[in-house]
C-alpha cells in the first residue's frame, strides 16, 4: 500500500470512528437524562472556569498596569537632553524586542513604551506614532496606563492643590439653610490668622480692564495705573499700553502676539471686530476669554518646547470650577463666531475647540467666579456692567480677574476675610478681617454690603449666584438665627 492510499484509508477510518462516536454521543444525549445532566454540568463548569481564567488574567493585567503607573510615578527620569534621548531609545528598543516575543510579553512591552513617553518632549505626537507602529493590543495597554495616570492625578487634585504654602484647602461642606440642603466646595484655613494677616496671594489666570480704560491710563496686562511711563508695542494696532517693559513682554508672550499682532488694522479685521464688540458691549469677558484661550495655546507650546509640564494645566484648574449655565442667544452666537474667526487663522484646529458648549461654559465660569479689581482711585463713572456678575465688595472697579484658588471662597455679609489688591494691580491678596482658627471656613463678601438691608443683599445674591444667604448677619436681621441648628 502506498503512502498516499494509506493516508486516505487512515482518514476514512478516523472519519468512521468519528461519525460512530458522534452518533453514540447523540443517542446518549437524547435518551439518558443522567448523562444529559452530567453533560450540562460539565459544560457549565468548563465555561465558568474559562470565564474565571479570563477574569483572573484581566484582574492580573489591571493590577500590573496600576502598579506600573504607581512605580513609574515614583521613578526619577533623566532630565538632560542627551540622557533623555538615550533612555528613550533604550525603552523603545526593549519594548520592540518584548512585543516580538509574543503575547505573554505584551504587558512588559507596554510598560517600556509608557516609560519612553515620560521623556519624550511631545507625548501626543509619540502616541500617534505608537498607534501606527506597535501592535494594537500593546497600544491599548499603553493607553490604559495613560488613562490610569490621568484618573489618579485628577482624583488626587484636591490633595495637591492648592499648594500647602497658600494656607488653605478645598473641602466639600454640606450647606444647611432654611431653603435647601446642598453640598458645596469651600476654602478652609490650614493655619491660625489674626486680623490683617495675609492668608494667600494669587496671580490671575486672566484679567481685563474695563473696556473704557483699555489704552487709557491703566496697564493692559497688570491693570496698574500708569505714572507717565507708557510702553507701547509697535505691532499692536489696538492701542494697548503697559506700565513696564516687563508687563509688555509678558502680554506679548502670553497672548498679545497670538491675538492682536496683525498687519490688518481695518475696521473689518477679526481683531478689530473683537475689540469693537468688547467696547460697544462694555463687557470684559470676551477679551478675558480670548486671553485665556491664547494663554492655553502658549502653555501647550511651552510644554512642547521645554519638555517641562506643570502638574495641572490651566484647563485642569478651570474644569473643576462650578458655574451657572449661560443660555445661548444671538449675542453668544455672534461672540462665538468672532472668537472662532479670530483663532482660526492663528491656531489650526482651534476653531473646532471653541465649540458652543465650551464657549458658554467658559463664559459661565468667568461670570460666576471672577472678582472685580478695585483700586483706591475715585472712578465714579465706572460701574460694573449689569450682565457681568463679577464679585466685588467695592462700588467701583477698574477690571476683572479670574483666579484658581480664590474662586472657591464662599460669601458672607459679615466675612472673615477681604479681597485686596495691595499693589494696585491684578495680584489678589486674601486678608483676614477677623481672628481665624485652623479648620475655619473662609469667606468674603461677593457684594457691597454697606448699609443695605438683608432683603436687598439677598436679592442680588439670589439673582447673580442663585443662593439664599444664611450668614449670621442675614439671620440676625431676619430673626431666623434660632431656626438653624
Ligand atoms: C463662585 S462659587 C464658590 C465656590 C462654590 N461654593 C463651589 O462649590 O465650587 C459661588 C457659589 O457658591 C455657593 N455659595 C457661596 N457662598 C454661599 C453661602 N454663603 N451659602 C450657600 N452657598 C454659597 C453658591 O452656590 C454660589 O453660587
UniProtKB/TrEMBL annotation:
<dbReference type="GO" id="GO:0005742">
    <property type="term" value="C:mitochondrial outer membrane translocase complex"/>
</dbReference>
<keyword id="KW-1000">Mitochondrion outer membrane</keyword>
<protein>
    <recommendedName>
        <fullName>Mitochondrial import receptor subunit TOM20</fullName>
    </recommendedName>
</protein>
<dbReference type="Pfam" id="PF02064">
    <property type="entry name" value="MAS20"/>
</dbReference>
<dbReference type="InterPro" id="IPR023392">
    <property type="entry name" value="Tom20_dom_sf"/>
</dbReference>
<keyword id="KW-0812">Transmembrane</keyword>
<feature type="transmembrane region" description="Helical">
    <location>
        <begin position="7"/>
        <end position="27"/>
    </location>
</feature>
<dbReference type="GO" id="GO:0006605">
    <property type="term" value="P:protein targeting"/>
</dbReference>
<dbReference type="InterPro" id="IPR002056">
    <property type="entry name" value="MAS20"/>
</dbReference>
<keyword id="KW-0496">Mitochondrion</keyword>
<dbReference type="GO" id="GO:0006886">
    <property type="term" value="P:intracellular protein transport"/>
</dbReference>
<feature type="domain" description="SET">
    <location>
        <begin position="171"/>
        <end position="447"/>
    </location>
</feature>
<keyword id="KW-0813">Transport</keyword>
<dbReference type="InterPro" id="IPR046341">
    <property type="entry name" value="SET_dom_sf"/>
</dbReference>
<dbReference type="GO" id="GO:0005634">
    <property type="term" value="C:nucleus"/>
</dbReference>
<keyword id="KW-0472">Membrane</keyword>
<dbReference type="InterPro" id="IPR001214">
    <property type="entry name" value="SET_dom"/>
</dbReference>
<dbReference type="Pfam" id="PF00856">
    <property type="entry name" value="SET"/>
</dbReference>
<comment type="similarity">
    <text>Belongs to the Tom20 family.</text>
</comment>
<keyword id="KW-0653">Protein transport</keyword>
<dbReference type="InterPro" id="IPR050869">
    <property type="entry name" value="H3K4_H4K5_MeTrfase"/>
</dbReference>
<keyword id="KW-1133">Transmembrane helix</keyword>
